[in-house]
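Write out this protein's structure.
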Amino acid sequence: MKTKILLIAGILIGLLLFTFFNYLSINPIYGEIGSAIIVGTIFGKKIKNGSGKYAFYLIFTYSLIAWILTFLFTPDGRIALQYSGEGLFIIFGFLLILFLFYSMIGSLTAFVAFKTSTRKHKKLIKYSNV
């Protein structure tokens, strides 16, 4: 149950960060990398088992939702959707590769955050027994 709530909260945090970076007119590629690092760090510290896997799914999901909403509700997205055939497949293929790239960054960040938090916890236990 805790994981489901954290996944929903993570998707909402990711969408919030996406709109925040979009509002600040930061390049979406850099904004997504930043939000993947932030969400991966949060997820790595909160979920202990399988945090990298959950972070991968989470970041892929909120990136997909954010870009679908971008394509549907912005004038630039509507223009891109008016392309036919190969142009639209190239755009979607490029976005899919970017989603996988962002998800790998967030998954690696979650793994590192998990390892550093458990190592710190083990050191505290070791020194508290002395």
